[in-house]
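S.,

Sequence below, as promised.
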Amino acid sequence: MRRITFDRRTGRGPAVGVLAAWGLLTPAAPAARAQSDDFVVRANRLYSDIAPSNRSDTVVLPAASKMSAAPAGLTFARSRLLSAGGPGWSEAEAWAMGPEQRGVLEAIEAVTRGEDWRRAMAFGQPYGIEGVPIELVRARLYTELGDPALLSAARPYYLEALETVAILCNVEATRLGASGHARRAIDVMVNWTMLARQIADRQLTREAAWGLGHVAAGLERVRDLAAQDFTGARALTAEDYRAVVARLDEESGPLSLDRVKFPMADELGARQALGVIYSERGGLVNQRVFAPTLSRLGASEHPLKLFGESTRLSAVAAVQADKLDAEAELPKVFDDFSGRWRVDWWDRRMKQPYHATQMDRNRFAAIAAATPDMGQLFGLRQAARTEAVGTRQALAVGGYLVLNRSWPPTVESTRPRFVRAIEADPLNPDRAAGRTPAMEYFVPNGVNARPLGPRDEPRPHRIEVVNPRGTNFAAFVPGDNFVMYSVGADGARGWADQVQNTAAAKGADYLIWPPLLTLERAYLKQVGQQP
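The prediction came back faster than expected:
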């Protein structure tokens, strides 16, 4: 059997002739190819408002192309938990100090400067190889569309490199923090978070989801670094806390999660797919291209699945809706998603099933195959919002303590010195009469603490952690630290007795401080699994 290979000379995937020989592709006619390519042009036009001088990709990706591979076994998850001096640290530190890796860190800093979203740089690399330097194509720092080019079969290879960049930023932050440079360590992670925020504005769902996920992870790591300083040297000054909060400002800063764009290239990809599989005359499915084309969409990340997908789709080709019906169904799917993007998290529309899950997926197989899981974006955005609001308010409490040498009576007490305004917990539905309920905050056995019973003794606050990254565990917060949490998806104030950091978990709070990441690292050390 012949292997599917990537042609580094052209930057394209399997050659048309090879796939045609397998029966998995019918070369498109010139007119059809021109129409298909037009959708790629339209997708790339979504980035036309980014000035060439304001494109971050032209700075970061060339630097990333020179990076050395990360040490074996150093995954993104492990890089966030890694301890200076622990297993594998010397290799990770040596890698991060390499000149190529320093160049990447400098590039990220250069494209994330400034505190005004209006002047923030943006990631504007087009889809496909047109307009992408051949050096980046050879280094797989682009988005592959295949041949013929299909947006719905896109493979954003550049995200693999950015995942390694995320590892680098976490290692560098740990290195700086361990060297007594807490503020610089936090700045590295804020820089990374801002770059991830740029990816969240990309126009394919897979890119936007990756960006939002890394925004949330980056903000948690910012708090983790602050928490390590808080329980250690306390090198962060009140001005450090204030400056970081200002840089993360929602209204004026580049983070601006309420301004995250809803991805539009997926709808163009779905329309492109319809144009490919339907005959120009009669509006019926072109049997020769139906299964081969849709199998590419379902197996874009796993080429060997092409064979199985093609066989499965051949069985439903005869029951496909005609072109007019398919073109009428498609906007129902995407208008449903995009319409919800603009409404409140508690709007009744958010409780309804997505149209994409209700349509006949056999009759509209092309739309089903070309439509990614766009519903995931809503939870990812809400989790990122929760992380952002929580990070600003937790750092404000830390700054208040440093400045006043006493705990703030309430979160509201940190305004206006540390936060511009008191923001509502994104997961708290108590908004009647204009209320903006802040994150829940208390000091064990101290400020705002749960009242003790007549026989209760003061003790550290116990938190049961439902850990999405591994084993569940219990953690304890003493009275010289504080607890901050979101009420979570059920909107109930649970005193952070049980926490699970997702926007969907019921019966658990969303922990902000101490950061879950900090508690997890301490737990792993406690059980002899020092990361």
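The first strand starts at residue 143 and ends at 144.

Coffee later?
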